[in-house]
Structures are given as structure tokens and as C-alpha cells.
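Q: Make up one entry.
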Amino acid sequence: MKKTYTGSCHCGKVRYEADIDLSEGTFKCNCSICSKTRYWLTIVKPDAFRLLEGEEDLSDYQFGIRNIHHLFCRQCGIHAFGRGNIPDLGGKVYAVNLMCLDDVDANELVNAPVTYKDGRNDNWQTPPSETRHL
């Protein structure tokens, strides 16, 4: 069941709301940026995401084929969410960093299904051989 969560960066300049059903699944990826930022994400459609504050405090980083905007707060550096246009996920999406949700209960996270992605090898359909570090 969808629930509205609030999220923010560390300093609080970037704040958002997202309607998320954690039972629909979450993702951990071994690509270079997800590994280095320890990103644990869930995907939501644009109508389920509302940026409340901080558009002017966001910096954008892109690499590779540049279909994802890896956004982070220019004040504290936290990657609270990203956005992109990913045809395999249905087009425009937001990637919400679950660790930036301010009002999520630890038990909700523990019970959320996790799918592992082998982004390091651009093998998105098969999990990486090792996931314990993710």
C-alpha cells in the first residue's frame, strides 16, 4: 500500500514528498556511483514525487549515456533523489534514496524486498555475483 513519506538531504535545504509502496520493491546496484554513495533506492513516477524545497540547492551530475540526473545538495553533498528517463522503467522516473526518508520506520526498510542490479557490468537483468557489500 502506498504511503506518503517525507525526505531530505542532511542539512535540510532539499526536501521532498514521495508516495511509495515499499512492498513493490527496492533496488541496490553495484555501479560506480551507487556503490560509492551507498544508494538504496526505489523508483516512483513523476506524479508520486513532489519537491518541496531546494531546487536551487541541487547540483546535477551525469555520466555514461546521461539518461539519469544524479542530483545532490550543493550544501551538504547528500544524494537524496535523482531523476531520469529510462524506457525500461516506463519513461520518466524519480529514484528516491530510501536512507534519506525522514519518517520511514526501520522495520519498513527491513521488510522491503531488495533486488540487486549488476550496473557495474551493464547487466541489469542479472544480479551481481556478490551482494553482501551492497
Q: What stands out?
A: The radius of gyration is 14 Å.
